[in-house]
Specification:
With 587 residues, the chain is mostly helical. The chain has 24 helices and seven strands. The protein has helices spanning 5-17, 32-53, 65-76, 92-98, 101-104, 108-123, 126-136, 141-152, 155-158, 170-187, 190-206, 209-226, 232-260, 269-276, 279-299, 303-316, 322-345, 365-378, 383-405, 408-411, 420-426, 434-454, 459-494, 516-525; strands at 19-20, 27-28, 507-509, 532-533, 548-552, 570-575, 579-584. Helix 7 (126-136) packs across helix 8 (141-152) and helix 16 crosses helix 18 (365-378). The protein starts with a helix and ends with a strand.
């Protein structure tokens, strides 16, 4: 499947990149070495911003997600396991990526700092990947570089770098997969098809959203075969590599599940089947899907809405080149597949984020943001209609989700860490204001379009610069008001440092009484030996080698009353609101 649109667009961009030299008719270009240095500096700048944002992160804040990935990494590195049965499976792909950190140190706080540093390095690859995408969207080099820098600063990209979660690397995986796929269907080189299939399989190993990517890629192979976009042999080889790597991913996930979740995992398949086969379930699914799309549009200041419009018009166009139409269909399939699948599969958590949630589509936000920004550059005459359609789409999606949620939007708890961009946009940290957030995003989109329409030749660079400052400001606000306070409160609630924990300790915990988030954090902080369950009322349940016991504490009670059956030699050494740590007198 060969097309010439990329070649012609790149040639046109290269001509715009040229500068007139000192002599008449002489044309010079920015040397590649200089441009490479600028790109490296841009990547380093992205790393520096991310490192600053993670500066106060010393232990997991989002439990059980972070602890699930970290304990999985510990097991993959050959370390001690912990029983996380009953939780959702935190797949092995991300844990495998960060597992080498455990070869360097067993200090849990240092492990965490190194993991988020690794997140910073990997996530910053969004910058060069977004640059490659912008170039394929026919933007000149300077404009593409400025847009890529703004794209990599999206809060949806930077925010999750601050946590040990798969979401920190998924935007890089998705962008890389799309670029490789486009290269394959554009010029037919088998190595790109093989690499794209392998990356789709890795996405499957990382998160359930990767299942959608893997299925979409499998469907693409079928389309390429039917349309004879590649030889049967090439398609067969690409399919075989994809199937082999997917099988390997399944095997690693299954192995990790057997080690970390011996009692089984929380399965989402029952929810998925029920929601997709009943009227009430379909209404739930479609309403929550609308909420996710609203969040995606609003959290990208409307740019993702322009991107969705551009992709939709490309798919239905009869004049668009086949490769471009195929790629537009792939991106839309991933967006809808992830939004529908996650909305159908998740249980009702009785919180506002059930109805409006941005995390699952955050991995495609940079792609849609870049496409939307390219629309500003390439389709200026259509901007009024595109703006109106985007505003209408945001209001429609927000209205549908709000109508379905009803009073639950105010009755259910609002967890601000699930709404970083929206909270920053509305400056509301305790409740969701859908109308205010929608109006704010629409206003920002109008301002961006105004910059584009009222400036001259360098409008794209100016627009990208404004978007970069906007994204950076949002990152600062989110970090100062959500990430850092949450890190401080988590450390105050669950840190065992003041209990004098060391590699010699053998810990026993009342898992039935201590909040599961607390004991999972304790399991992360004790990588040397497995944590043993115990019953405070039964002295025989305490193993003889135990050196530290964690028991629950009722509000307003004394430290000593937390463990009435404690052996005579034991005493409290650390007390928190909901738990108390005890040691024997000899310690």
């Amino acid at each position: 499947m060969r097309t010439d649109e990329i070649t012609s667009a790149t040639r046109a961009s290269d001509r715009r990149d040229q500068d007139t030299g000192p002599g008449p008719g002489t044309v010079t270009r920015v040397p590649n070495r200089v441009w490479s240095a600028l790109m490296l500096a841009g990547w380093a700048g992205q790393v520096a911003i991310r490192v600053w944002s993670t500066w106060r992160q010393a232990m997991p804040s989002l439990t059980p997600d972070e602890t699930g990935y970290l304990i999985g990494a510990r097991v993959l590195a050959g370390g001690t396991s912990a029983d996380l049965s009953g939780n959702g499976l935190y797949r092995a792909g991300y844990s495998l990526l960060i597992s080498p950190v455990y070869w360097l140190t067993d200090d849990p706080h240092l492990v965490y700092r190194l993991v988020v540093l690794l997140n910073c390095l990997i996530s910053s690859a969004v910058f060069p990947l977004a640059y490659a995408l912008s170039r394929r969207l026919s933007l000149p080099r300077a404009a593409a570089g400025a847009l890529a820098f703004a794209c990599a600063l999206l809060p949806a990209v930077v925010y999750y770098v601050q946590f040990a979660m798969a979401d920190a690397v998924l935007p890089v995986v998705v962008l890389g997969w799309l670029l490789l796929t486009h290269r394959w269907i554009s010029d037919g080189r088998l190595r790109y098809g093989i690499a794209a299939g392998a990356l789709a399989s890795y996405a499957y190993a990382v998160h359930s959203r990767g299942t959608v990517i893997l299925l979409v890629h499998a469907g693409l192979l079928g389309v390429v075969l039917l349309r004879r976009g590649a030889t049967r042999r090439d398609v067969a080889v690409a399919a075989q590599v994809m199937a082999t790597t997917a099988a390997l991913a399944w095997a690693i996930n299954h192995w990790l599940q057997s080690r970390v979740y011996p009692g089984g995992i929380l399965s989402m398949s029952d929810y998925l089947v029920d929601r997709l086969t009943s009227v009430d379930g379909l209404v739930w699914t479609l309403s929550l899907t609308a909420g996710q799309v609203w969040y995606l549009i609003t959290a990208t200041w409307g740019l993702a809405g322009l991107g969705l419009l551009a992709l939709t018009s490309t798919v239905i166009s009869r004049t668009a080149p086949p490769a471009i139409r195929t790629m537009a269909a792939i991106v839309l399939a991933v967006v809808l597949g992830v939004a529908l699948g996650s909305s159908a599969a998740l249980p009702d958590e009785h919180s506002v984020n059930n109805f409006f949630y941005g995390r699952y589509l955050a991995c495609v936000a940079p792609v849609l943001f870049a496409i939307g920004a390219a629309v500003l550059h390439l389709r200026r005459t259509r901007l009024p209609r595109a703006f109106a359609a985007t505003a209408a789409g945001a209001m429609l999606c927000g209205g549908i989700a709000s109508l379905y949620a009803g009073e639950r939007l105010t009755a259910y708890p609002y967890l601000k860490f699930n709404f970083p961009e929206i909270s920053a946009l509305t400056r509301q940290w305790s409740s969701l204001h859908v109308g205010q957030a929608t109006a704010g995003a629409i206003l920002l989109l109008a301002l961006v379009i105004a910059i584009t329409a009222t400036t001259g030749r360098e409008s794209t660079i100016l627009t990208a610069t404004a978007l970069a400052f906007l994204n950076f400001a949002a990152v600062i606000v989110v970090t100062l008001n959500i990430s850092w306070p949450m890190a401080a409160s988590t450390r105050a609630a669950a840190d065992l440092t003041d209990a004098g924990i060391s590699s010699d300790d053998r810990i026993a915990i009342d898992r039935n009484g201590v909040n599961f988030r607390i004991w999972m954090l304790h399991a992360f902080q004790a990588p040397w030996h497995p944590i043993t369950p115990m019953r405070p009322t039964d002295p025989t349940s305490l193993p003889s080698e135990t050196t530290l016991v964690i028991v629950p504490r009722s509000p307003g009670t004394s430290e000593r009353s937390s463990w009435p059956a404690a052996p005579a030699a034991w005493h409290p050494v650390l007390a928190r609101d909901s738990w108390v740590a005890w040691r024997p007198a000899s310690r």
